[in-house]
Amino acid sequence: MRKLFYSILVILLTISIHTFAQDTIINNKVYTQKQRSWIIPAYVNLQYAGGIGNYIIGAGYTLNKSQSLRFALKYGFTPKYRSNKNLHISTVEFCYLPVDIPVQSNISIMPKITTAVSRVFADGPGTFTRLPSYYPEGYYAPNAFRFHFSLGITGHYQLKQKYKVKAIEFYIETTTNDLYLKYYFNYSGLQLTNVFTMALGANIMFK
């Protein structure tokens, strides 16, 4: 598993660093005028926890010039000692950073709103998109797909122009999904703290 994770990371880093693009500077930040192929990611994402795996790696794309709208594809892995079976989770994520708050000339803070859809693949039975026929109707809810909602904050650190890595971002967020919210509304004993989890992550932004 570690070999697969590191192989994906090396491939994404290699592709991104060797992409050529022209840059402009707006409010002390370098923004890329896209000349890279659409398939080349603008950043690599690394994340720990957050309901889409214990260890997550992904490729991200900026959808506007200010980079406030983003789209990411992620792969998450949860080892069986944490969930009784190995879980492989693919996620499609949309992120909105509504405001950029300068702290220093090369540092800023951005609130983060994220929605995502994930698909779980488990090593063994128990994960399904439709209820298997051997279960009574309504016995289990389909559990392969999850819809996620997250709120967080991102710290953006702009690097010098001589580097091919344009910026590094670190973020923390709290996240939940449709199943947890269903539990919350159906069982009065649950608190909001019981249905939200935390995630830590970093984005490596490229020119």
Could you explain the architecture of this structure?
The strands form two sheets. This protein has an eight-stranded antiparallel beta barrel. The protein has a two-stranded antiparallel sheet with strand order 1-2. Residues 19-26 have low confidence and may be disordered. 16% of the residues lie in helices and 49% in strands. The protein has helices spanning 2-17, 80-83, 178-186, 192-195; strands at residues 22-26, 29-33, 43-48, 55-62, 69-78, 87-96, 101-104, 107-122, 145-158, 165-177, 197-206. The longest helix is centred in the first third of the chain and has 16 residues, at 2-17. It is elongated. It is built from four helices and eleven strands, in the order H-E-E-E-E-E-H-E-E-E-E-E-H-H-E. By secondary structure, the protein is of the alpha+beta class.
Summarize this entry quickly.
It contains four helices and eleven strands, in the order αβββββαβββββααβ. It has helices spanning 2-17, 80-83, 178-186, 192-195; strands spanning 22-26, 29-33, 43-48, 55-62, 69-78, 87-96, 101-104, 107-122, 145-158, 165-177, 197-206. The strands form two sheets. An eight-stranded antiparallel β-barrel has the order 3-4-5-6-8-9-10-11.
